């Protein structure tokens, strides 16, 4: 009995902050978890930039409304949900996720929440739990599920490595998986999983070759 745990941004939908960086003309906001592994640090930095430019939640939500899922993502997710349970585990925030979940057919998502002042200024954020991706897959395992996990960034490595099978999906940087003591075992797992998931091959084709680690 297994549950598939998927990252959201970079796997099913484009990176929200990159889209907002382009829409707002603030290139610094293109920095993501692929570049900065410390998510708290990254978020505090983003909030500081928003404040500096006088931008609030509404400005970001307007951009998110225009974002579409990546090509094939909705179809892939629909097929996956026919085969078994799927949970999207994301470090994004409920205030950002809703329009995207609508476009993906309302899958289950576990994410975090923003703290927003009455005037719409983003003043902080509340993470659901520390290391939420890793903690969530371990919790699922503790109630009798095996997990399959896929994501594209540093913050996905915990859930990928803790899962029975995992996919590092279209990861931009080789550094993402460097330094991982368990990377060799993970790659073996990825390849085994790839064979099992023939039907999902189009979306999961970019598994890095062993020599890339
Ligand atoms: Mg991601």
Q: Which helices and strands, and how do they pair?
A:
Layout: E1 2-6, H1 16-24, H2 39-52, H3 57-65, H4 73-83, E2 85-93, H5 94-103, E3 108-116, E4 122-126, H6 132-142, E5 146-151, H7 157-162, E6 165-168, H8 183-196
Parallel strand pairs: 1-2, 1-5, 2-3, 5-6
Antiparallel strand pairs: 3-4
Helix pairs in contact: 3-5
Bound molecules: magnesium ion.
Number of strands: 6
- The secondary-structure class comes to alpha/beta
Helix content: 25-40%
Largest sheet: 6 strands, mixed
- Give the count of helical stretches: 8
Principal-axes geometry comes out as globular
Quote the average pLDDT: 84
Q: How much strand?
A: 15-25%
> What separation lies between the terminal Cα atoms?
31 Å
The rounded Rg comes to 17 Å
- Runs in which pLDDT lies below 50 for 5 or more consecutive residues are 175-184, 196-213
Which small-molecule species are bound to the chains here?
Answer: magnesium ion
Major sheet: order of its strands?
A: 4-3-2-1-5-6
Q: Order of helices and strands, N to C? A: EHHHHEHEEHEHEH
């Amino acid at each position: 009995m297994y549950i598939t745990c998927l990252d959201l941004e970079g796997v099913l939908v484009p990176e929200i902050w990159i889209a907002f960086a382009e829409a707002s003309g603030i290139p610094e906001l293109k920095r993501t978890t692929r570049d900065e592994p410390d998510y708290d640090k990254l978020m505090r930095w983003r909030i500081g930039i928003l404040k500096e430019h006088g931008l609030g939640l509404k400005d970001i939500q307007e951009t998110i409304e225009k974002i579409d899922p990546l090509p094939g993502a909705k179809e892939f997710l629909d097929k996956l949900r026919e085969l078994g349970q799927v949970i999207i585990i994301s470090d994004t925030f409920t205030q950002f996720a809703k329009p995207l979940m609508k476009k993906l057919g309302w899958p289950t998502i576990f994410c975090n929440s923003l703290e927003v002042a009455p005037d719409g200024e983003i003043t902080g954020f509340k993470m659901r739990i520390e290391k939420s991706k890793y903690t969530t897959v371990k919790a699922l395992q503790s109630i009798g599920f095996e997990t399959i996990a896929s994501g594209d960034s540093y913050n996905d490595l915990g859930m990928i490595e803790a899962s029975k099978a995992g996919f590092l999906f279209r990861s931009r940087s080789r550094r993402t998986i460097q330094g991982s003591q368990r990377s060799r075992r993970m790659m073996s797992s990825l390849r085994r999983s790839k064979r099992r998931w023939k039907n999902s091959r189009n979306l999961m084709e970019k598994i890095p070759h062993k020599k890339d680690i």
